[in-house]
Specification:
heterodimer, A: 404 residues, mainly alpha, 0% strand, globular, B: 178 residues, alpha+beta, Alpha-Beta Plaits, 2 domains, 47% helix
């Protein structure tokens, strides 16, 4: 710490964080009670778990996406990442919560996945033969759980070490942990790409076990990164009203966050369109089923809504330089994109269970309930550490004005 | 060349912070036609000299739109009018298959427009520039930072402006012959 400016600044999180944590916890607990009622009521149970899968994938996305952006920051450096690293870190440290929230799937596999139930009840004999084949090789209940344990073990371990080394930098002496961060982050990013792809296949794609797409894992992956960046922008907007973030956040950092959002939106559109183009061009009966279901029965309007409001409109808005540099305006698009992530996951998951467009109450209650618990845990994590590790040699790129 | 032909007055500074402070003061003093030269890009300098807006993004956007439209229309014309071929029983006007080339043409035209638009708006290539008449200006690509007030500025006065620049604590102030 060389400058007087840095020494005078209290880096701990503002008290508003505690207030939001308590309110989120209240919403989360009320929602959790409603969810437990839904899960045990026989008439609601099946619909509840469809909504719960949506909620779980949404908040898992923010959690893992934050870990990935943090690892990218450790590899590339840059003030844009330093200024939000504790926001990303607090979101990443919600992985233990997501691990616990995965346990309810123990009671619901046959409600979500046809391959997890008794196969002799499957009426279509082609599908039954296919299922008998793949449940022996890959999609077995045992395999599902073994793989899930591996995914969560890897994510928890990555999060544990990244958090531990980061916490060391809150105390003297001044240290440079970047070699360790780099050594973990590079293989960590590769491990993440593989685990999240397999998880996307196990948890989402296998709902329709007769359909495959090789880009599916990447589509889920990019959605997670987008959700995480948007979430970080929302939190930095809340924090920038108070010290210390009001002193740290510069327009050039906000500009970079806006550029990330633009990039992720474009990659999402690129992957989505690639999947559509390849299936459209091939025009094979076993491949077009996925789109056939999602473009008919009213689901097509949701798909069109995604094209316009998950890509075209946000893309056009984000071309503006002044928009990307203004946190008070960028935050509204970030909130909107988080909503669009819900819509995208809804469009991926729900048409599997209904030919015509339907929204159940659980598609709304479950994301809010899980979100309440998640946000309470997130803000607890955020309050537990300073908003910047003051004893990191790289903290000065944010703490000191440039070019001094 | 007349002896009165002056391009401007140039002040030399030895740190970016000194240049930014001086540029801000000069701009606040009412000088609008000013410019700064640094060995490496410093974003704050553009703000300090009151340079908020440039037209490169607009040129890039127009280039991108022209590229995208021409890409799509070219394929539309080839596939439906000039040389229709039945591919997999699909309609001649199959828009999904046109998107890739449309996208590539958008990027190509936007990229080319950005480069050439930037060069044109900067007036490049420029074989002669008066600032090089000051021999110390060679340091602008090493470790010195320069601020110039152009003689075409309304407030420019050979004596008063020099006095003002000297009050900013520069390493040197030099008149730039045009």
């Amino acid at each position: 710490m060389s400058t007087a400016h840095a020494q005078n600044l209290d880096l701990s999180a503002p008290p508003v964080v505690k207030t939001i944590q308590q309110r989120s916890l209240f919403v989360g607990l009320v929602g959790a009670v409603a969810c437990i009622v839904g899960a045990v009521t026989p008439s609601q149970s099946e619909k509840f778990f469809h909504g719960y899968l949506l909620a779980f994938m949404l908040w898992l996305g923010v959690t893992l996406g934050s870990m990935v952006i943090l690892m990218i920051r450790h590899l590339t450096g840059g003030g844009w990442g330093t200024v939000i690293r504790r926001i990303l870190g607090a979101a990443m440290r919600c992985i233990p919560l997501m691990t616990v929230l995965f346990v309810p799937f123990l009671f619901s596999l046959p409600k979500l996945y046809i391959w997890a139930g008794p196969l002799d009840r499957v009426a279509d004999h082609h599908l039954r033969e296919h299922l008998q084949d793949i449940t022996q090789s890959y999609l077995s209940v045992k395999g599902f759980w073994i793989r899930a344990i591996i995914y969560f073990a890897i994510w928890n371990l990555l999060s544990y070490f990244l958090s531990k080394w980061s916490a060391e930098q809150d105390r003297p002496p001044l240290r440079d942990n970047s070699p360790r961060f780099k050594a973990l982050s590079a293989p960590g990013l590769i491990l993440y790409a593989f685990t999240v792809s397999f998880a996307a296949i196990d948890w989402l794609m296998s709902i329709d076990p007769s359909w495959i797409s090789t880009i599916y894992g990447l589509l889920i992956l990019i959605g997670q990164l987008l959700a995480a960046m948007c979430f970080a922008v929302v939190v930095e907007r809340i924090l920038v009203r108070h010290k210390p973030m009001s002193e740290l956040l510069r327009p050039s950092f906000v500009h970079d966050h806006g550029k990330w959002m633009l990039a992720f939106i474009m990659v999402w559109a690129y992957f989505s369109f690639s999947q559509w183009l390849i299936i459209w061009a091939g025009n094979l009966p076993e491949e077009i089923t996925w789109y056939y279901r999602r473009l008919g029965g009213g689901w097509g309007y949701v798909g069109l809504f995604l094209v316009i409001f998950h890509f075209a409109v946000p893309f056009t808005i984000l071309l503006s330089r002044s928009f990307k540099r203004d946190i008070t305006r960028l935050v509204w698009l970030a909130i909107w994109m988080l909503f669009m992530r819900v819509v995208d996951l809804f469009w991926i998951i729900e048409p599997n269970f209904s030919v015509t467009f339907t929204v159940s109450i659980w598609d709304i209650v479950a994301p809010i309930a899980v979100g309440g618990l998640w946000l309470a845990f997130f803000f607890r994590n955020l309050a537990s550490q300073p908003l910047l590790p003051a004893y990191d040699v790289y903290a000065k790129e944010v703490l000191e004005p440039a070019h001094d | 060349m007349k002896t009165t032909a002056t391009y401007g007055l140039m002040a030399e500074f030895d740190s970016p912070r000194a240049l930014i402070t001086a540029a801000e003061k000069t701009h606040k003093e009412g000088y609008k036609k000013i410019d700064a030269y640094t060995p490496y890009p410093i974003e704050e300098v553009a703000e300090a000299i009151g340079f908020h807006h440039n037209n490169v993004p607009l040129v890039t956007l127009i280039g991108g739109i022209v590229g995208g439209l021409s890409g799509y229309l070219m394929q539309f014309w080839i596939s439906t009018i000039d040389y229709p071929v039945n591919i997999g029983g699909k309609p001649y006007h199959s828009w999904p298959s046109f998107i890739i080339v449309t996208f590539e043409m958008t990027i190509l035209f936007a990229g080319i427009s950005a480069v050439f638009g930037m060069l044109a708006l900067n007036g490049l290539p420029m074989p002669y520039h008066p600032v090089f008449n000051v021999s110390r200006f060679a340091m602008a690509s090493k470790d010195r930072f320069f601020l110039i007030v152009f003689a075409s500025d309304k407030k420019y006065d050979a004596v008063a402006t020099r006095q003002f620049l000297e009050s900013l604590g520069p390493v040197s102030v030099a008149e730039v012959p045009s």
